[in-house]
């Protein structure tokens, strides 16, 4: 079975170099090339004998390749289609803002949470991504967008693509360590957001991990009765469990909590829901991202109209709850929130 070099930390690469009886400086060279998205054939300052040793030990350079890039005609958002070495396909999105470039990465092939408004769970969970496969998405897109190879193009990362990050906790937390490594891409943890539907045991684990990323909760309802209709995870973790966990996270990290709330017509969008949400979040250091529901035809749900969204937000603002309407980006190429899926692999059964 192939072993992915991007799964290795810098210290693990150092140990590997030592085991292969190579000089210590080879670790610096190899780790640098890997984090630049470079394949063995392009690593010009590494001897062929060293590369041969790595290959003979079963190591691979890059665990995925970009097979297609779709660019939005509306806002310039790019949707990336990646092929993994086992033939699976995942998606990601690059969003360009005034403050920098944000990449949305996937953490699983598919998803088993099956939220009623999301495309990622339509095929269930295929498998977890390794830490290196998550990192490889950032590495590949960074290389694809770096005009000056010395400057990192990616400034921010959101773990909001396909999959539930906390359902792949060990690989996700190692990814955070890898992408933050000063010897590698060195992305600040404060520039990384992790979105979860509310696996509370892992919220506590992350709070204790000394990895102070921004925690984003996919809430989408202010009460258990409503939430159970659209999010099966609510049958295990109730809203009171989530609120207790996020308060613990804030106490540990002092990072403001972000709540995502997709507006679904006739489900969670009344003024009563807005008042309940205001009461639920009162006194908590938090922000609410209101999301105009992005269409997923198989799900059969409709988004709330603009006027009703405004009235909903007016209630939150009146009750001193910080909120904004998230800018919808990449919807024309099915790259917006809730739209990432494995559709490409179905529509393109042979990818060279």
What features would you describe in this structure?
The structure is a single chain. The protein has 352 residues and is an alpha/beta fold. The chain is built from 11 helices and 14 strands. It has a 10-stranded mixed β-sheet. It has a two-stranded parallel sheet with strand order 1-2. It has a two-stranded antiparallel sheet with strand order 7-8. The two termini are 21 Å apart.
Please tag this protein with its features:
352 residues; alpha/beta; 10-stranded mixed beta sheet; two-stranded parallel sheet; 21% strand
Give a topology summary.
Elements: E1 3-4, H1 10-19, H2 25-35, H3 48-56, E2 59-60, E3 64-71, E4 78-84, E5 89-97, E6 100-104, E7 108-110, E8 125-128, H4 131-144, E9 154-159, H5 169-180, E10 192-196, H6 200-207, E11 214-218, H7 224-230, H8 239-253, E12 257-263, H9 271-281, E13 286-292, H10 306-318, E14 323-325, H11 343-347
Parallel strand pairs: 1-2, 6-9, 9-10, 10-11, 11-12, 12-13, 13-14
Antiparallel strand pairs: 3-4, 4-5, 5-6, 7-8
Distance between the termini: 21 Å
Following the backbone from N to C, one meets helices and strands in this order, namely EHHHEEEEEEEHEHEHEHHEHEHEH
Total number of beta strands: 14
Number of separate helices:
11
Taking strands numbered 1, 2, ... along the chain, how are they ordered across the largest sheet? Answer: 3-4-5-6-9-10-11-12-13-14
**Largest beta-sheet details:** 10 strands, mixed
Percent range for β-strand residues: 15-25%
Estimate the helix proportion, in percent: 25-40%
Structural class designation: alpha/beta
What Rg, in angstroms, do the CA atoms define? 21 Å
């Amino acid at each position: 079975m192939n072993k992915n070099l991007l799964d290795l930390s810098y210290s693990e690469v150092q140990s590997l170099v030592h085991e292969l009886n190579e000089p210590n400086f080879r670790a610096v060279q190899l780790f640098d090339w890997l984090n630049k998205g470079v394949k063995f054939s392009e690593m010009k300052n590494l001897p062929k004998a060293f590369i041969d040793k790595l290959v003979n030990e079963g190591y691979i350079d890059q665990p995925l390749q970009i097979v297609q890039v779709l660019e939005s005609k509306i806002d310039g958002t790019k949707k990336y289609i990646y092929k993994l070495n086992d033939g699976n396909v995942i998606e990601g999105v690059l969003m360009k803002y005034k403050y920098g470039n944000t990449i949305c990465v996937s953490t699983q092939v598919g998803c088993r949470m099956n939220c009623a408004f999301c495309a990622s769970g339509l095929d269930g969970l295929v498998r977890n991504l390794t830490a290196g496969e998550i990192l490889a998405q950032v590495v590949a897109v960074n290389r694809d967008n770096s005009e000056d190879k010395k400057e990192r193009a990616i400034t921010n990362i959101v773990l909001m693509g396909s999959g539930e990050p906390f359902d792949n906790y060990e690989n996700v937390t190692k990814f955070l360590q890898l992408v933050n490594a000063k010897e590698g891409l060195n992305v600040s943890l404060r520039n990384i957001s992790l979105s979860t539907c509310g696996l509370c045991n892992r919220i506590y684990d992350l709070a204790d991990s000394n990895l102070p990323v921004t925690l984003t909760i996919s809430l989408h309802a202010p009460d258990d009765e409503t939430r159970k209709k659209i999010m099966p995870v609510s049958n295990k973790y109730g809203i009171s469990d989530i609120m207790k966990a996020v308060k613990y996270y804030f106490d540990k990290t002092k990072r403001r909590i972000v709540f995502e709330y997709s507006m679904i017509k006739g489900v969670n969008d009344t003024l009563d829901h807005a008042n309940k949400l205001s009461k639920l979040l009162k006194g908590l250091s938090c922000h609410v991202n209101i999301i105009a529901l992005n269409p997923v035809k198989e799900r059969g749900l409709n988004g709330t109209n603009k006027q009703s969204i405004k009235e909903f937000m007016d209630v939150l603002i009146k009750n001193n709850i910080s909120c904004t309407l998230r800018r919808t980006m990449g919807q024309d190429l099915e790259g917006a929130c809730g739209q990432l899926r494995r559709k490409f692999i179905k529509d393109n059964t042979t990818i060279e």
